[in-house]
Amino acid sequence: LQNLEQEKYILKRQLEISSSENEAIILELQSDIRQFRQKLEAQEQIMRQMEREKNMLIEELTAQNTRLSNELQKSNATEQQLSAQLQEIKEQCNRRTLSIQDHVNSLESLKNELRLILDKKNELENRLHMTTNERENLSIALSEASERIHILERSTKEQDTKYQMTVQTLDRLERENGTLSERLESFDSQRSLHSELNHHSSLLQEMNGEEDGSGAKDEASQLVLKEAQSVYKQLKTLCQTLRSTHHDDDSGLHSDMSFSSLDNTMASVSMAAPNSVTEATSASMTVNDKFSRGMLSAAADELVHIIMNLDAMQFKTMFEQTRSMLIEQEEELKKKNDIIMQLESKLSVRDVELQSTIEERNQAREDASHSTLAQDETVIQARKDRDAAIERRTKAEVELAKNRVELMQANSQLLEAIQQKVELLQQLEQWQIDMHELIEEQMKNKLIESSTKPQQQQQSSSGSATGNRKSRLLDLFYHR
After folding, report:
1. Which of 105, 178, 277, 364 is the most buried (most CB within 10 A)?
2. What are phi and psi of 98, to 5 degrees?
3. How far is CA 242 from CA 173, 246, 260, 265, 314, in A?
């Protein structure tokens, strides 16, 4: 009874120590949570500030767009006025003539310029076609990378579910270990009570009691031994399955096969749990020599060690590599789009110049056809006015093309701002995921440290080996 009281007092002290440690850990975790919340609030303030800046940028771009639209309307009105003036000048010039030789020379020069412009236009069209093909190839590669990311995410979810099934199996084994420990404690209490009763009886009663007690003790010890052996077999089977799963990481197909084999092993272990006692009865004599004290706790330690060392970082690294590849492809696609926009702007300017050159050529032909009239000062002045009007019209068309290019650039800047916002949101989500992983890792490390303390206390206290071994198993599964 004194030993029991001492053990009870020791267990009570250990319970108080563990409760105080747990309270300290809870306080630390609460402080960490408060710090993380403060950081999250700061990040949210930064995001709100960026949102305000983005809205201001959108407003500025909208105002610039309206201004450019107004300028475009003014340019159109100016173009109409110039067209009217040009029509009047054409009507005046149709009544006059020019020198045939001058117009022939100007026509030849215009043909040469037109030929050069057509060559440049063909070259730009070829470059535009090549850039379009490259853009299509990049889009195909981007879609393939997206499909690969979806496949990796689906495999990660499947592995999470399988890991949850492993944790459930561990919980079931913990419950079985708890029932086994309770039976061991009841067996120890019955044995101590039986020894006290036999101490106050007579020699005959003591002999009879020893025979009965030895029979009951043998039966109880055999039952406890069988259950311990069944739990040990289940733990060893689960350790082997997890070890084979841990080493089989060649491909996603192999990992799926290993996890399916793990599920089958768990199912077979759970189906064989009710029949484990009857199977252990037939092999109790052979395993009795092999099964010794400490093997059950060693198997539990091995199982916890394997679970803690499961390589779940492979899929995360693959996901990060795929995402970096996707980001690089998006950057290349953005560069190609910029090149395409520049080429389109140059092509539009060249088209305007080509149209103006064609009109000048047509005008020169018309002037050459009406060369029968006399050439005087009025004709020369009209020709100068016509050339000035054509030059003004060409400048207006070039300015219009430049304004269109600026409008396209403003739209591209707006799209880039939206893309930056999306990237910032993705970075925020990734930061939240990393913070959750960091919190889980800290909790896991603290639980491991708290689980190693009862093991060190058990190694130092060699007097009560059986009671300390049972409490060690209970503490180990409790902290796990």
Report:
1. 364
2. -130, 170
3. 15, 6, 11, 10, 16
Q: What's the Rg (C-alpha) of the chain?
A: 44
User: Which tokens is 316 given?
Assistant: 């995360």
Mean pLDDT for 305-330 is 61
CB 89 within 8 A of CB 379: no
Among residues 166, 382, 187, 157, which one has the least CA distance to residue 261?
A: 166
Identity of the residue numbered 412: S
Q: What is the pLDDT of residues 432-442, one digit of tens each?
A: 677 677 767 76
Region 104-119: what's the mean pLDDT?
74
Lowest mean pLDDT among 64-78, 108-122, 373-387: 373-387
**For 273-287, what is each residue's pLDDT tens digit?**
444 434 433 333 333
* Residue 235 C-beta-side C-alpha neighbours within 13 Å: 24
The one-letter amino acid code at 330 reads E
Tell me phi and psi for residue 449, to 5 degrees. Answer: -65, -40
Alpha-carbon torsion (166, 167, 168, 173), positive or negative: positive
Angle at 428 between CA 422 and CA 431, to 5 degrees: 145
Residue 380 has pLDDT above 80, yes or no: no
Cα separation, 296 vs 290, in Å, equals 12
Phi, psi of 202 (to 5 degrees): -80, 180
**How far is it, in rounded angstroms, from Cα 11 to Cα 2?**
14
Q: How is 170-209 classified by DSSP, letter by letter?
A: HHHHHHHHHHHHHHHHHHHHHHHHHHHHHHTS-HHHHHHH
Question: Closest by alpha carbon to 239, among 307, 147, 325, 328?
Answer: 307
CA distances from 247 to 48, 235, 237 (A): 47, 18, 16
Biggest distance spanned by C-alpha atoms of the chain: 159
- Cβ neighbours of residue 389 under 8 Å, at least 6 residues apart? 82, 85, 86, 89
**Chain Cα centroid distance, residue 134:** 27
Gap between the Cα atoms of 477 and 480, Å rounded: 5
**Which of 421, 367, 322 has its CA nearest to residue 97?**
367
**Distance between CA atoms of 196 and 209, rounded to whole angstroms?**
11
CA 298 – CA 303 distance, rounded (Å): 9
> Do 152 and 319 contact (CB within 8 A), yes or no?
yes
**Residue with tokens 């639209």, as numbered in its chain:** 69
Q: Which amino acid is at 18?
A: S
Distance CA 300, CA 169 (A): 13
**337: how many CB neighbours lie within 10 A of its CB?**
15
Top-confidence residue, 387 or 379:
387
